[in-house]
Amino acid sequence: MEFQLLEFLFIFFYFINVILFSFLVSKIISIKKNWTNIYITSLIIASFGFIMNYTLEFSPMFFYIILLLLYIAHIFISYTGSIILKLSCSFIIMIYHLGINIIIWSIMSLITNSNIDYIIISSNVLLITRLIVLIISCITMCIILKTIKVKYLKLISTDTQRLNILFIFLLCLIMSSVFNTTFFTLEIVHKSFFIQQFVFGACILCSLCAALFMIMGYEIIADIKYFAKNLKKSIKNENLVATLEINCSNKTIVNYIYKGEAQDTIVGLQYNNFVDTISNISIFEEDKSKTKMATSLIYMNDMYKNNLRKYKSEYRVIENGVINWHYIYVSFKEHKGLLTAIITVENIQDEKGLIMQAERNAITKLYTQKTTETFISKFIKAQNGVLFIIEIDNFKALKNNLGSDISNDALKDIATNLNGLFFDADVIGHITDEEFAVYFKESMPNIDERALNLCQKITKTYSKDNINITISASVGIAEVTDDILDFDQLYNLADIAMYQSKKRGKNTFTIFENVYKKQLSLDI
């Protein structure tokens, strides 16, 4: 009765072990159809593994070769992928089992002071030792599935060059491991032999781990450094809310840290579903559209294609009935063709509260000239940035002929367009009646495109009493350089560029570059 119970437990744990292994493989390569085939082949392997116990005493090598062929057949029947990838997965599980078996049998031989052949020919002892191996295997498989992220396992199938090297290494390991089983039938009772076998088994497992680390190690170390960096940053910065890392290729979340704690349950989820859920719950209604655009994968990919490696946006969230300002910072990193977007979210309510108290234009709600100059002067000290000076063409004619009501509506339209087009700007100001300023603390790779969009958006015709007046924008752009010390210097350069736009017929933009500096020197 006890022996029958052991037999049942053996088949049960063997089946569970193969299922766990199959689940692990499904994280690396795709399943062909469904799990039904996997369940059937897993049961066949478990039953065959039990029956083959009785052939182990005659030829351990034959036993493990047949078992390896069964695992290979299981992988080829149930999964898609290259031949090398399938064989590598089969070798991994076989090497793993053999390594544990050798270690357990060596320990049992040392304890009982009997040779390994005695363990193999004793049905009860063999069943117990193999059951121990299966239980250990199931536990370690669960730990691997729980701790190793899917993105690391996927590297086995995506890095072809390393996969080829891994395959050759695994082939050498499996050949040496299977060949080593020929020593099991020898009647050797020396402790040195058992210790040698124990060391061999440990070396096999360590070599397997080293080979897999060769594939996944770089990413794991990089992520540990990244996590440590963000953890350190979150400790220093109490306002840091979250850090999100997204695989732009398969659109999944690969890392999520919320208030300094890793959220493993979110890892692996589809990013679009996650961000839609968050935005629908907490983001302020008026900010949803621009935030959705700034955090969409389509927009991120477009920004990256346009050589923009980072950008930012602000939005409001409702937390316990209280509105707080948050700041989104999006950056990118690429490794071996895999593009990853990193989103950092920071609570800027305290800073925003001070800024909101600053003086604003009554009509446009943009910063006044004084406030604009103050903020830009502060940012210029970093010796980096871009200033747009925008003068509205025909605005005086609009105001004189169509009246203040329509001119005020035009100013509101302009402010709306500026906020929409430059949602990631650090400062948007209304300097004079017909002049606006936009400032970015960091340089922009797509200045031309954004300036062109600006000119197109501002152009609009207003009418009253059969009088039609079209306004447009003449834009001057200047970048901060080492020799620019204050706002006035930067403004003068952008202003010169703006007047060049007017000379060119208005409704266009000009970037102040070195040629203008040289011309200015000659004039002086």
Short description:
With 524 residues, the protein is of the alpha+beta class. It has 19 helices and twelve strands. Helices cover 59% and strands 18% of the residues.
Please characterize this protein's 3D structure.
- With 524 residues, this protein is an alpha+beta fold.
- The chain has 3 domains: 2-218, no CATH class; 237-348, Beta-Lactamase (2-Layer Sandwich); 358-523, Alpha-Beta Plaits.
- The protein is built from 19 helices and 12 strands.
- The strands form 2 sheets. A 6-stranded antiparallel sheet has the order 3-2-1-6-5-4, with helices on both faces.
- Helix 2 (35-51) runs antiparallel to helix 3, helix 4 packs across helix 6 (123-147) and helix 7 (150-158) packs across helix 9 (191-236).
- The longest helix has 46 residues, at 191-236.
- The radius of gyration is 34 Å and the shape is elongated.
- The relative contact order is 0.06.
- The model is unreliable at 520-524 (pLDDT under 50).
